[in-house]
Amino acid sequence: MSESIDQIFVSGKQWLLSWLTGAPSWVIQIASSLINIFALLAVFLTLFALMSVLERKILGRIQNRYGPNRVGPFGLFQPIADGIKMLIKEDIVPARADKIVHFLAPVLIAATAILALGIIPYGRNMTPFTIDGGILFFFAVGSTTELAVFMAGWGSNNKFSMLGAMRAIAQMISYELPLIITVLPVVMVVGSLTPESIVAAQNGYAFDFVPRWFVFTPWGAAAFILFFVSGLVESNRTPFDVPEGESEIVAGHMTEYSGFKYATFFMAEYIGMFAITGLAATLFLGGWHAPARALEFVPSYVWFFAKLNALLFVYVWLRGTLPRTRVDQIMNFAWKFMLPMAFTCVIAAAVWHYAGRGWRGWLCSFAVIAVVYFTLSILLDTRRKFAPRTYRFAE
Amino acid sequence: MNNTAFVVIAILTLAGALAAATLQKLMHAALSFAVTFVGIAAFFFLLGAEFVGLVQVFVYIGAVAVLIVFTILLTRRDVEKDRGFNWSGVVVAIAMFGGLIWAILKTQSLSMAAPEIPALTVKRIGEVLMTSYVWPLQCVGLLLTAALIGALILVMQSPARETRALPNQIRCAMTPTLQLFLIVSAALFCIGLLAALSRRHAIFILIGIEIMLAAANLNFIAFWRFSPEPHQPTGVMIAIFSIAIAAAEAAVGLALVISVYRHYRTTNVDQLDQLKG
Questions:
Q1: What distance in Å separates the CA atoms of residue A369 and residue A375, rounded to the nearest whole number?
Q2: What is the pLDDT of residue B165?
Q3: Considering CB atoms only, which of A133, A137, A144 is closest to B61?
Q4: Chains A–B, number of C-beta pairs less than 8 Å apart
Q5: Hey, CA dihedral for B24, B29, B35, B37, is it positive or negative?
Q6: What's the pLDDT tens digit per position in B154-197?
Q7: Does B233 touch chain A (CB under 8 A)?
Q8: Peptide bond into B115 cis (omega under 30)
Q9: Percentage of chain B lying above the pLDDT 70 cut
């Protein structure tokens, strides 16, 4: 019974494809891809709509107010109202803008964000796009986002847009390094670049009750935190949203966009967020595996989306809690702390592997990470940095 | 199916390259350059070297293209001015293309179909990279570090990026012949040559050189795919190393462009004829 519920979407797709029996193989291939694409878009656009209203409601609760509650029950129809508003707004293109580039930027940014979703395993046998080297595909596609942001900044022919794009690209390039290097230990330990085999490697339970997720190893925990923070920066979320810091540069690279093009940027940001949290869940939180043996009857996709939503909640929580950082702080943090710590995770994973993957490996890799962490904090002089600030004013 | 894919990708790549070489606005040229590299990555996918294709997108779109647009930005004041176009470059490029096409069409052995080859697994490339190619790998690592430091010293802001080589697998059995791939690559090379010889803007010349390098990479992958003994992934390895080196070259080259621009306030290579700063 639970088996068939677990595979309900897979068998549903098979049923749809069974209508096409007898057709040439390329027709079936295209039909299968189209079903995957439609399913992916339907799920994630719904999640986007829900997320946009839930984020405002959670933020409201954090800030001691209600949040949207007028449209529909509990304000749940707010995204529909927002969508209609966005659609019927005037689409303004600045007179001196580079029209083609200005138009292509939101298209490209949304396309790349959606492409990245394709390689994530959403449940047992539920990967929309299986490719050897799927992790690399994710990052290859993700790195295209930078170009799209740049196109938005340049095409708008506005200094706020340009500065915002510069900031965005600078921080995205800086944090792409720790983002990718924190994936390396997982790839090293599993010995594969395919998300399915990474999920498969996290199957089972240590001592019969702790799941063998990588987040429960010292290197995995450190890498997960680093990955999460880098993901926060990559998706331009608070506290790292300087590219669109409204008090400084209006809305960054999105300043000159209005109406549906702006909505596309907004959507791309959320989809990018889903992709990066989905990858984090796949790499470190065991993907679609259940957290306990007694709970394995719950379908795999439910677990995946539970983990995804838990991580998304942390994103919103951080947004409601932390103030915006400065540009130089973000850069310093990336190059002086994140990058050395990311390399340390690689070494710690190697130590863990060669010390036998047991409790001894656990302790050894913990020691490696702790030593580097404390050395770094002494070297970077964090005690002085976090002291009350002194202000210098421009002459 | 594969023939259609080949034609579509070839048109995309060559149109992108031609636009990159001839468009007036530097920013449009840089974006067409990105399109060209997506096309070349698609060729790599078609040839079964998925891994190299992904590395290509990663390095060229994620790093080199972004570097180029950054450099355009930092040398912005010089961008909008009209530049000379050296027509002799067109002549050289067309002559070169004619010669290459003649050579390719004359060689009978090139019009062969791709042999069925076993999958080049993920582990295989990793193993080869860490055993037979460990010294080249170290050298490339050293080179990239040197390029990083060099670019840092040149402009005191670092653009170099390193890509680690990891694996891939063969899937498609394909129909276009080696000859077709060589023709596309020859055309690409000549377009790169055209850009490098005719344009007077330093960044255009760099774009031209990158396109020429990519054409060479396409050849390496094509020859690897069509070789009767495909068990040695030499062509794939050379392409991976050459992508890494091209990234280092772009970083240092663009750093040079920026530091030259800061000094002379121009990026026109014809005006940079002083030996004395």
A1: 10
A2: 41
A3: A144
A4: 77
A5: positive
A6: 766 444 444 344 444 444 445 677 778 888 888 888 888 888 88
A7: no
A8: no
A9: 81
DSSP-derived 3-state class of residue A210: strand
Q: How far, in whole angstroms, is CA B145 from its chain's centroid? A: 21
Would you tell me the crossing angle of helices B66-74 and A134-156 to the nearest 10 degrees? 20
Cβ contacts of A151 on chain B, cutoff 8 Å? 31
Site from B32, B66, B145, B163 to mutate, A interface, most A CB atoms within 10 angstroms: B66
In the prediction, which pLDDT does B160 show?
Answer: 44
Q: Which residue has the tokens 């293109």?
A: A93
Could A146 and B70 be called an inter-chain contact, meaning their C-beta atoms sit closer than 8 Å? no
Annotate A5-69 with DSSP letters as a single string. HHTHHHHHHHHHHHTTTTS-HHHHHHHHHHHHHHHHHHHHHHHHHHHHHHHHHHHHHHTTS--S-
Residue ranges of the domains in chain A?
Answer: 2-7+89-385
Contact yes or no for A147 and B50 at CB 8 A: no
Cα-to-chain-centroid distance, residue A197: 20
**A contact set with B (CB within 8 A):** 26, 98, 100-101, 131-133, 136-137, 139-144, 146-147, 150-151, 154, 162, 166, 169, 173, 176-177, 184, 187, 191-194
Query: Which two three-digit tokens encode residue B49?
Result: 């070297």
Residue B273 identity: D
Other Cβ atoms less than 10 A from the Cβ of A164: the count is 28
What pLDDT is stored for residue B276 in this prediction? 65
CB of A282 closer than 8 Å to CB of A199 = yes
> Beta partners for B201?
B268
Per-residue confidence at B230, pLDDT binned at 50, 70, 90? low
B145: pLDDT strictly greater than 70: yes
The ipTM value here is 0.75
Q: Which residues of chain B have a CB within 8 Å of the CB of A191?
A: 123
- The two structure tokens encoding residue A232: 């926060």
Class of domain B2-78+85-267: mainly alpha
Residue-wise pLDDT tens digits, B97-120: 888 888 888 777 776 766 666 666
- Which sequence spans correspond to the domains of chain B? 2-78+85-267
**Closest Cβ–Cβ partner in B63, B66, B122 for A132:** B122
Q: Tens digits of per-residue pLDDT, B11-20?
A: 888 888 888 8
Contact A257, A106 (CB under 8 A): yes
For chain A, residues with pLDDT lower than 70 are: 1, 382, 385-387, 389, 394-395
